[in-house]
Specification:
Elements (H helix, E strand, L loop, with lengths): L5 H10 L23 H8 L5 H4 L6 E5 L8 H7 L8 E5 L3 E3 L2 E3 L6 E5 L6 E4 L3 H4 L7 E3 L5 E3 L2 E4 L16 E3 L4 E4 L2 E3 L5 E3 L3 E5 L2 E4 L1 E6 L2 E5 L2 E4 L6 E6 L9 E5 L2 E4 L4 E5 L6 E5 L2 E2 L8 E2 L11 E5 L15 E3 L2 H4 L21
Parallel strand pairs: 1-2, 2-5, 3-6, 4-7, 5-8, 6-9, 7-10, 8-11, 9-12, 10-13, 11-14, 12-15, 13-16, 14-17, 15-18, 16-19, 17-20, 18-21, 19-22, 20-23, 21-24, 22-25, 23-26, 26-27
Length: about 350
């Protein structure tokens, strides 16, 4: 498992944008409630204040439609129609159906929303692999623009499951590198490297993510809120996260709050030391016995035991028992967990908008 990304590691290091440490000021209303039943009303309250910059400065959103009854047959055609440097939010409404295409939202087209029917989600699928495109460019959906929003989508990398023999079989469903991006009620399907959480500040809320090895990886500062993380057996151990933090000064990391860890893999871990300083926290989560008692892996690099930040706080379920955890896993105190269980972790008060509605 540890050699699957050796070829891309050097290029990835140079590609990562380092976000240097900034103080995180936690207001009491930013803190995620410990009672999951209060999550919905609390979240709605957080988003009650409008953020004109995130909405785009060109007036109300423009809606364009893809599929049956729409102006465009493909999502790519719709994205191409958006002018470079657009200052107005554009909602691309995608009709139910299967869309076999490799989609990119370029960096010069901000304020784009891809919107699907919550009762009949469109399926965006493509079979890109690292062998053909490189891991960085293997994704079905690539988001390079700022202020992107994905709502009610199924995003699939339909490439064959890696078998441990084929070189470059890893394949991402989504790569998100645009800052201030959010996914609401989206489902991501793949095996190895499903979600490439590349760089920037992101929120994944009410999402489903499925995979085998390193299926949430990258160097972003992201909050996963009320998501289901579904682990299926990999080639060897199954691994949820591989966070690419290369220096203690990088203000990046993955925080999972009120998530559920489900699956069928018999030997999964919450994360591994891909880079020397990974930072991953699971808080207030339901963790099934898909996670082994040790919980985490140093990826056969014991020198990282003193540099990783693998934290757990008030999790529940048979996989949450920390009695046999590796020595480098940290049982967080409330004060230590506080910065990770708040929308302030991704500075959401400056950019986060509620999900689009049509």
């Amino acid at each position: 498992m540890q050699g699957s990304k050796v070829k891309m590691k050097m290029s990835f290091v140079f590609a990562v944008v380092i976000l240097f440490s900034l103080p995180i000021i936690v207001r009491s209303d930013d803190a995620i409630p410990a009672d999951k039943a209060q999550l919905g009303s609390w979240f709605d309250k957080q988003l009650a204040v409008k953020k004109p910059m995130a909405m785009g400065g060109g007036g109300p959103p423009k809606v364009i439609r893809v599929g049956i009854g729409g102006q465009f047959k493909t999502v790519t055609e719709a994205i191409t129609s958006i002018p470079v440097g657009n200052a107005q939010r554009v909602v691309v409404s995608i009709a139910p159906g299967n869309y076999t295409e490799k989609i990119t939202i370029p960096s010069d087209k901000p304020f784009v929303t891809l919107y699907g029917d919550p009762k009949n989600m469109p399926v965006l699928a493509f079979a890109g692999t690292a062998a053909k495109y490189g891991t960085v460019d293997s994704a079905t959906l690539t988001v390079e623009s700022e202020h992107f929003m994905g709502v009610n989508l199924k995003v699939v990398n339909s490439a064959p499951r890696p078998d441990g023999k084929r070189v470059g079989a890893q394949a991402s469903a989504v790569r998100v590198g645009g800052d201030a991006s959010v996914f609401y009620n989206c489902k991501f399907y793949g095996y190895q490297d499903t979600v490439f959480d590349y760089k920037g500040r992101h929120l994944f809320k009410d999402c489903y993510i499925e995979g085998t090895v390193d299926f949430i990886f990258g160097s972003a500062r992201s909050l996963y809120l009320n998501c289901e993380i579904h682990v299926i057996p990999g080639d060897g151990n199954a691994i949820i996260t591989a966070h690419a933090r290369n220096d203690a000064k990088e203000d990046t990391g993955f925080s999972f709050v009120h998530c559920s860890i489900s699956g069928t893999a018999p030997n999964a871990v919450l994360g591994r030391s891909w880079f020397p300083y990974p930072r991953v926290v699971f808080a207030l989560c339901d963790i099934s016995n898909v996670i082994i008692p040790e919980g985490w892996s140093n990826n056969f690099h014991p020198e990282t035991n003193s540099t990783v930040y693998f934290g757990e706080f008030n999790n529940r379920g048979p996989g949450a028992n920390m009695e046999k955890r590796v020595t480098f896993a940290k049982k967080l105190t409330p004060a230590e967990a506080n910065p990770f269980i708040t929308l302030a972790y991704i500075e959401a008060s400056t950019w986060l908008l509620p999900p689009a509605r049509i």
